[in-house]
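Let us work through a complete example step by step.
Step 1: write down the sequence.
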Amino acid sequence: MSDKYDVIVIGAGPGGYVAAIKAAQLGLKTACIESWTDKEGKHRLGGTCLNVGCIPSKALLEISHKYEEAHHGFADQGIIAKDVKMDIGKMMERKEGIVNQLTGGIGGLFKANGVTSIQGHGKLLANRKVEVTDKDGKATTYEADNVIIATGSKPIQIPPAPFDGEHIVDSEGALEFTEVPKRLGVIGAGIIGLELGSVWARLGAEVTVLEAVDTFLPTIDQQIAKDALKQFQKQGLNIVLGARMTGAEVKRKLVNVSYEDSNGKQEAKFDKLIVAVGRRPYTDNLLSEDSGVQMDERGFIFVDDNCKTEAPGVWAVGDVVRGPMLAHKASEEGVMVAERIAGHKPQVNYDCIPNVVYTFPEVAWVGKTEEQLKAEGEEYNVGTFPFAANGRAMAANSATGMVKIIADAKTDRILGFHVVGPQASEIVAQGVIAMEFGSSAEDLALTCFAHPTLSESVHEAALGVAGGAIHIANRKKKK
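Step 2: predict the structure and record it as tokens.
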């Protein structure tokens, strides 16, 4: 038996490493276990998000957007940039550089805060003991007063399209292409599918996205979703809804895909196929039978509102528990658990967790949609403002999309905040802050916003909730 810790965290992704740092800052003796290694076998912190998820995908989205703008947007602004070429190798090198810098930075933060980093696969045993197996198969058992499970998730594989690592790939493989595929298929029009499809479409691939559901982005506000779909189709993304995949076979270096839609059986050929149908909790060989931790039939660990499992002193956060699979949600839960272990009583406000699709235009939202409120029978008012009427958006050649604010009809409290357009990921934070403080739409309407800024669209949408927008004609109220 090795040293005993106050807290052992299993997993060093955005939930785990943040929980470990916070626990150490609160004076708790903390260790964090991570099994991830890079291609050279070096220990890597940061989990999916930093290594093969949020960060590398945003690097490719940013670079590909600049390339797309140089090709199609510069001329309109008087910039002549002939023969703009893309160096895929250099782009991937830059992506890797950013990843290396950030993952290495976590190691530095662990040292600065006194967190012990343990390399290997962690398995929870009974009575808060954790068995760690290193890469050579040697097992060491550690003991803790509290264990935080933060093992994250991994891509779902579907039987009709098993990954082969070359032609049929998951989201990780889609970040590693060495050249632009001529024809690219994407299974799933969710956030990951749209982002990865966008990257390669901008770089010249002919992209078809097959989505089994009949509605585009069904969980988001449908006025925003329809606006986004129109923009993506304009960009050349061929998004086929109601397309249920039945098979994929690699022949002569091409992926032959068969699917069914409203017109019957269909076939398509692609050079590469990305399967992005969602993710599932990563719980492989994680729990001994007597650990006391319970999972549901989909592999999610049961926790209460404060991320406590059914085993005393064992907590779980992030993608491995209920709620949206978002890095920032995982981090907030990690901080909450560390604080609770230290005797404080914080809670995560699950009503105020923002969601973002990092396409162009970006799509971001927090709170309720119109569809949800209608289903709940709630009375509400809506204010919208298009970026087409925003001076800064026009100056930036990005005047597409809108800001939409939904407020309670009686109290005027903001219930939902939705954005499709330039920098939506940053603008949505204004809605999150407003809702966190229980703001009314009038509070935002009475706030002074700098001119000219994209954020003025928030001001105008808030004014529009009460029918008082200045820079666009207001809808006449029904008498």
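Step 3: interpret the result. The radius of gyration is 24 Å.
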